[in-house]
Every structure is written in C-alpha cells, then in structure tokens.
## 1
Amino acid sequence: MTTKLRLIIEIFVLFIHDFFIAVYEVASALFYPNEDLHPVIVRMPTLLKNKKALWLFSLIISLTPGSLVVDLSKDQTVLYIHFFHAPDSEKAINTLKMRFEQRLFKLFHSKDNV
C-alpha cells in the first residue's frame, strides 16, 4: 500500500509540475507568436493494458495544455497524441513514458492490483 501511495503522489506532483510549465509555454506562444511551432500528431505504443490506467494516462495527457489524446487504436495498444509544439516528437513520447506511463504501469499492473 505504501508503494501505491508513493506512486499516486509522484504522479500527482509530476502532473501539477507539467501542467503549470505547459500553461506557461502555451500562454507564451499565444502572446509571442512564433513561426517555428511544430504541431504534430504522434503514434505512441503503450504498455498499459488496464482500462483504468489507459483512461488515467489519456486524461493526464489531455489535461496538460498543449497536448491531447485524439485516438486510441482498436486493440488499445497505441495512443495518437497531438502536441501543440513538439520539435522532437521522440523526446516528447519518451518524457510521457518515463514520467507517467511507467508509474501507471507499476500502479495498475502490480500483483495486488486495485
């Protein structure tokens, strides 16, 4: 139980941090238009098999300004994500995987699952 609580707190803190950074970045782009924006839709394979985990991961991505889950493959193994500005889409995907997907995987795929 302690490990799950730690994971929940980590995910929440990381989300709040990323949320405010994204708010700043999107607001800056609105007030200081930049022609070098790189909007992109990326295909991100996911390890998450639990529907609650997929839902939470999609929610975290979509609530973060500048990113939005636009679709999920029929077999629920691939997310299609729109980024407002992602000059390096691989880096954006890896950041999501490292910060949220791995923690959600541990949280929802452990033996004493919720």
Note: DSSP finds three helices and three strands in the chain.
## 2
Amino acid sequence: MTIRSKLTLSYLLLFLVVLAIGAAAFWASGRWRSAAAELSRAYNQGIAAERLRADIYRQISSGSDFLSGDREAEADFWDIQKRVAGQMGKLKAAAKSEEETDHLEALEETQRELVYVAQNVFRPSGAGMRNPKERPAEKLEEIGDEVTSDVAVLNQYYQGLENVALAAAAGSGNLIAYLVGGAALLALVQLVATVFLLQHWLAGPIAEVGQVTTKISQGNFEARVAIGSRDEWGELAGAINRMAEALKGYEQKLRAQERLAALGELASFATHNIRNPLASIRAASQVMLAENADQPAIKDSLSDIIQSVDKLDMWIQRLLGFAKPLDLQPTKTELPQLVYEALGLHEALLESKRISRAIRLEPLPPILADPVLLEQVLSALIVNAAEAMETGGTLTIEASAGSREAILRVTDTGKGISPAFIEKVFKPFVTDKPGGTGLGLAQAKKILDLHGGSIKVESTSGAGTTVTLTLPLFWEEG
C-alpha cells in the first residue's frame, strides 16, 4: 500500500470517528433540549395550577361573603369565574398525557360543583330545589378541601414530570461531557499516532536514504537502501540501489579501461624496445643459418632461436591486440548467421577431433552488434570448447530470445574448469592451458561489455563447460 493510500485511509478513519462523535453530541444536545422544554412546561403548568387554585379559593371566599350579607360578592364571583374558565382551558390545552387530562378534569368537576352551589346561594328559588341556607357554609368548605386535594395531586404529577425531565437533562449533560472527554482523548491519540506514523513512514526512510546516498556519493557503491516496502519509499530505494549497481559497473569498466591504458603503454614500450631487437636477432639468425646449413648442430640452435623469436613476436602481437582500444561499429546483425560463419571457420579443427555438433537456434530478432568483433568472440569460444574436449565429444550451441536480449549458450563435454580457477577466467594472462595466452575470454568479456551485454561461465569439473552470452536485441524506433 502506498503512503498516499495510508494517509487517505487514516484521514478517512479519523473523519468517521469525528462524524460519529458529532452525531452523538447532536443527539445528546437534542435530548437535553427536549428535557429542558418538558421541565419548563411542567413548571409552568404547576404555576398555572396554583393560580387556578387561588382563584377558586377567591370564589369560595366570595360565596362566604355573600352569605354574610355582602351582595356585591356575587359580581366578584362571576368575574373570577371567567378567569378560572380561561385558565382551565389553557391547562387542558397544554396537557400531554391522559393522566394529566384526568387530573385536570377532576379539578374542573370540583369547580363545576362550586358553581352549582354558588348558583343556589345567589338564587335560592324553584320547586324541589335544595334550600342553600340549610348548610351552604359547610358545603363551600367541603369544596375548598376538594380543590386543595385535586391541586395537590396535580402538583405531585407535575413534580414527577420535573424529576423525570431533570434526570433526562442530567443524563444528556453527562453524555455530552463524556463525548467532549472522548474527543480530547481522540485528539491526543491522533497526535501520538501522527508523530509515530510520520516517524515510521517519513523520518526513518528519509534518514536511511540520506545515509546511503551519502555513502554512494563518497564512492561506496556497495551501499544499498534496506527498504523493502511496496510504497513510494520502496520504489525510491529500488531506484537508488539500481543507480548504485550501475555506478559500480561503470567504476569497474573505468578501472578496466585504466588497466588497458596502462597495458597499452606497456605494449607501446614493447613495440619500440623489444620487437626491433627481436627482428634484428631473427634476421641475423637467418643469415647465420644460411651460412651454416651444412653444420647440423649450429643449424638446430639457430632454428631454435628463430622459433623463440617468432613465439615472442606472436605474444607481443596478441598483447597489442588486447591492449588496443576497440573500434565498435554496431549494425543490425543476424546472430544465427554469425554462428554458422564462425563454425565454418573452425570446421577443419572440429572434424579433426571428430567433435559432433548440436546446433539449436530459435528464430531471433536481429541484434545491434559489431559482426567482426562478435565473430571473434564466437571463434574464441568454439576453439576453447574444441581444445577442452579430447577426440570425440559434442559441441552444443543454443540461441533463444529473452524479453529484451538474445541469449546464446556454447556448451562442450570436455574436462571442465576447476572451481578455484573459474573465478579467474576473465582475467588477462590467466590460463590453465599449456601455451595459452589467457587473453581469449578476457577479450570476449571486453567485447561483450562494449556491446552492453554479458558473459557468464558455468562448469562442472569432468562434465563440461557452458558459456552464456546475452546481447541486446535490436528494436526499430517508433
């Protein structure tokens, strides 16, 4: 997962948590407001009930005053009755439960009974009607007690509503407090997580990359970034490691070129200071050989001198050829055709040693190579393979195509190369063959490096050797 994806996921998780806390806080706030509204309503209903009881008591007092002879008390009674009716209507309209409505209707029924008694007190007439003067004062007192009882029950009901609302408001307040505390804790956790993740995702890899690039800049091309994650840092580490590997290869090539340059100077010295005297020695020996052709002892000695001089001259020529800078002239080349041409050059050698050939060349795209130099490499490999095998044996040449390179394998069934020597096969002048110069494989590697290819030797002592070449395929532009 990339760092961008990790950051996006962490931000999404944080957003969801904050959204959940916000939703819970909004719900708790709504619950708190509802409890506050219910508390306010219960309080106002209780106050209205108390006012209603006070007015009813005033009506009872007006009735008592009327019985005591105050005739104006009747008018006060009916004025208060209008206010009582209005208050009763508001209370019933604000009622929210059947229980509250029942309590109000009980109080309303008591107040109706008061009106009925008052009507008989103010207008004592009519057949069959009870005489209000018999016990009106007691009846008014009895109604007063009923009003007190009804209002007390109603207030008790409202007090219960207030307690419930207070409990709900307290619960909502506690929930909001918990949410605030949780949000603070979440912010702290987020801070710690951010510091940790920044250290893990950014600071640590930056330090690692900085240390390794410093080592590379100081010439340590063996340094590698040890980051194996599959994110941007992993891609950057891979790029830096590939860069270090490429720089290491360039350094090796540069050192090889420096060695070749030094070898070239040595060859130039040999040309001017060794070959000329050798030529003089050879010419003098030939003259003396002609003059002493009838003396076998002198003739044999002079012939040995001439052969030694020729051998030294051959060594110097090969040394010059190896040290000489190669003039690469790449062109579109068919590798199978080049293989068959190289085999043709050494057909006599292979036939003389009765070596059978197994040639398996798949159809290949062309390669971009210098055919002259590449034929030199193939000739060296074929000769090496033939020399490694005694009479008989099989030379196998296989070619196939990789994703972007041609692969050529040359295998013999000879004696193989010892494990101790195989590490040195590409070093100049190192050979395990009597009379060998040790320049064949060194020159082959030099040519392959110049083409941007590679050469590898695998061998099992007593079972044969396989040399594998890779060369870049030729791709038409566009």
Note: The longest strand covers residues 464-472.
